[in-house]
Amino acid sequence: MHSSSKSSLWLAVLLLAVGVSVVLARPAGEDAQAETLKLESENTGDKYSFSFDTSNGISRTETGEVKPGAGEEDGSLSVQGSTSWSAPDGKKYEISFTADETGYHPKFRLVT
Fold this sequence. Notes:
The protein has one helix at 3-24, and strands at residues 36-43, 47-54, 59-68, 75-86, 92-100, 103-110. The protein is of the alpha+beta class. Strand 3 and strand 4 form a beta hairpin. The radius of gyration is 16 Å and the shape is elongated. The protein starts with a helix and ends with a strand.
């Protein structure tokens, strides 16, 4: 994978993470006191994964893997993940996504 392609994909992943953080940002209150109930992460260099759950109902998972290309400089990063949360109206929402050499592909849905 060319370094400019890697940089662009990592930038897209970073922007996604920031965007999800903004979506999940809520006014101070009970959410400000939320605790992490589960946190798992692993990074082997070519693959990574993480997940967490919080006491206020936010869940996040993500996995990523470098896919080899024809040459040493070729290849791509393939990422998939999801985030779910309960809105103030009590409904639960989820954003799931894939991101790879073809772009970022989100899916938004009302869970309950």
